[in-house]
Amino acid sequence: MLFGRRKKPPVSYDKTGKIPVIRSSICTGEQVAGFKETASGKFQEIMLIRNGEDLREFLKKYQVEESEIRREW
User: Fold this and answer.
1) Taking the CB of residue 39, how many other CB atoms lie within 10 A of it?
2) How many CB atoms lie within 10 A of CB 61?
3) What angle do CA 22, 35, 14 make, to 5 degrees?
4) What whole-number distance in Å separates Cα of residue 52 and Cα of residue 4?
5) Which of 12, 19, 26, 49 could hold 31 in an S-S bridge, CB 3.0 to 4.6 Å?
6) Sequence ranges of the domains in the chain
């Protein structure tokens, strides 16, 4: 598969130490989903959100409710 979409192995999600976050660019509107450590503030990028299907995939894969996601700019 030369130009196919790569599948990354799922990252473990510890609800006690991390929160789901979508970072949005003010300039381009690009959105990236990931997890932010509550103690250090370090952001771990998981996937690019291009449309609603990508968001649903992220929610399903990591068993996150849409109401739990925090948006940052």
Assistant:
1) 7
2) 14
3) 145
4) 20
5) 49
6) 18-72
Burial zone of 55 (CB within 10 Å; 0-12 exposed, 13-18 middle, 19+ buried): middle
Tokens matching residue 61: 């894969």
Model pTM score: 0.77
- CA proximity to 13, closest of 68, 50, 64: 64
Residue 38 Cα distances to 10, 20, 43, 44, angstroms: 20, 10, 9, 12
Question: Tell me: the pLDDT tens digits for 8-55?
Answer: 666 666 778 899 999 999 999 899 999 999 999 999 999 999 999 999
Q: Is 60 left (phi over 0), alpha (psi -120 to 50) or beta?
A: alpha
